Amino acid sequence: MDALSLGLQVGVPVALLGSLLVVRWLDRPRGRWSSALRSRLLMGIPWGSLLAIALVLFVYLVVQQGLRYPNDPLAIPFTSWSYFDPVGVLMAPFSHQNLGHITGNLLGTVALAPLAEYAFSHFPTGRGSHAFGDWRTNPYVRAFVVFPLGVVGVGLLTSTFAWGPIIGFSGVVFAFGGFALVRYPLATVVALTMRDLVGTVYYVLRNPIITGTASPSFGPPWWAGIAIQGHLFGFLVGVVLGAAVLALRGEEERPSALRLWTGGLLVASSMTLWAVWWYQAGGGYILYRGPGFLLVAAVAVLVAIAVRTSDTAIVGRVTRRQVALAVLVVPILTMGFVAVPLNATVVNDPTPPGQAIHLDGYMVTYAEDVTNERVGAIDLSMFGETTQVNASGVIVIEPNRTIWTEAVSKGSLAYDGERTVRIGGVGWSRSVAAIRRGWTVTGGETAYQVALQPVGDTPTWVFESKPKTADPTIAGENVTVQPVDGHFYVLVTSGTETLGRARMPENNSSVTLGDLTLTNVNDERLVATHQNTRVEVAKAETYE
Q1: For 399, what's the count of Cα atoms within 13 Å in the CB-facing half-sphere?
Q2: Which of 329, 437, 462, 479 shows the greatest Cβ crowding within 10 Å of its Cβ?
Q3: What is the DSSP string of 357-401?
Q4: CB count in 10 Å sphere of residue 225
């Protein structure tokens, strides 16, 4: 690390602390900040939020082995695949896919959880109430038991009623946002802005100066990775819980309808609740951005109605507010009813689509254009689209836990050349390297093959593409590259006749087939020579 980067890493937090001290001095009389926090939080500290953060960190660093593999935690066994995999359902809401995933969710937690906990309050807010008169109002119980248990409960709800496999704390983060919104709508907007600020400072401290170049992307679009149903489910659960708490506390704590509507629009938009997407046949995705924005607008209106509607009776003892809350509960129940049959599915066909390696109940293979047995098991169409999609890449299967997933896509492996897949369970894991090697023929495609290699074992070549023929014709002859069992062969043909076949020459060696001499130049280029003619017919595939 250079001196400039080190200076920035020190200077940024010093500058922030200095500016905060200036604001603190300007915002006299002193003590006003701390007294406001102490009125609702035990010693002014959001203990429940800190415990939630500690739980997520413990799962990532210890259970998912993030201490050993910070950028590649054990994620596959801790995804909520189905109700037949209780370990996944229990662990998924507190586990994460990678370092970026947990970082994003913890930034959201740091911003929103303390505000939600402040709205919940460690102390009773009613006049004449006594904090230590009952266990339910005891600030220690509320801070260290009730709020943390609520966090765990909401997390389990998000994994139990998710539409298909999920992993991550984001459903709870959205619940924090929904709970805080109904009491402090505009402060919740500010908290989301603070989340962005904290994220910026975090990345500045990690890498104050970075460089980059343009590179292709082989993953799905960013919005196709959003668990939109889980986010909406968590958000609405938070709103209902927050509205119920406000209803118990009385009229004076309720924000205006305009603040609620404005806050609802801004919060739901900032948290990308508009990103409604679905699968397309052939491995594509479709984003319903317009309907998604209508969803955001509807949520904002429902939040305002649920909080501001009066307690006037409509029929018997049924009040307007009860009806408004019921309207919010309906989509939660609907999502739950849909989730039950989806999560009660099993993998359609657990047979590996091709040669596989077997490790402690897992099967790992590589295949292309095969039916995704996990998505296809749902068999649900929406707006004319389908879940009957294909998968291409490294596939991991564990029938007893109903696991079937494309762990590494074909494009990602082609870009990197080698990727590691980690499988396992509580207390154990195994790493499997996926290795791709290939030669790209001139004017054509790439002939390649894929090996899988558990750490400590020899590689097993499990997939090979079709032979590829270079475009140039030299002396009436063509060159074809053929992958076979970890090796590459070269063929020289004339029309339909094969004139010769041999192993790819060693580095800077040659082989003569037909009228052509084929030379491997530095293990990078395959050059065909005939008399005074030299033509490059293939190049070794390169990887990032």
Answers
A1: 7
A2: 479
A3: EEETTEEEEEEEEEE-HHHHHH---BTTB-S--EEEEEEEEEGGG
A4: 13
Q: What is the C-alpha separation between 359 and 341, in angstroms, rounded?
A: 30
Confidence of residue 73 (pLDDT cuts 50, 70, 90): very high
Strand partners, 88: none
Nearest-5° Cα angle at 429, 543 to 394: 40
Alpha carbon distance 502, 204 (integer Å): 54
User: Which one-letter DSSP state was computed for residue 62?
Assistant: I
Residue 178 in contact with residue 242, Cβ under 8 Å? yes
Task: Report pTM.
Answer: 0.85
Question: 379 Cβ partners below 8 Å, 6+ apart?
Answer: 387, 388
Distance separating alpha carbons of residues 541 and 525, to the nearest angstrom: 10
Rounded CA gap, 527 and 532, in Å? 13
The CA distances from residue 157 to 60, 128, 181, 335, in Å, are 20, 35, 20, 11
Pick left, alpha or beta for residue 444 (phi over 0 → left; psi -120 to 50 → alpha; otherwise beta).
Answer: beta
CA dist., res. 438 & res. 433, Å (int)? 17
Cis check: omega of the bond before 399, within 30 degrees of 0: no
Residue range 400-448, pLDDT digits in tens:
888 999 999 999 999 999 999 999 999 899 999 999 999 999 988 999 9
Residue 316 Cα to chain centre, angstroms: 47
* Spatial separation of the C-alpha atoms in residues 476 and 516, rounded to whole Å: 10
413 contacts 390 by C-beta, under 8 angstroms: no
Cα separation values, 292 from 269, 280, 335, Å: 10, 18, 16
Say what the pLDDT of residue 128 is: 53
Beta-carbon contacts of 230 under 8 Å, excluding residues fewer than 6 positions away, are 158, 162, 163, 166, 170, 171, 174
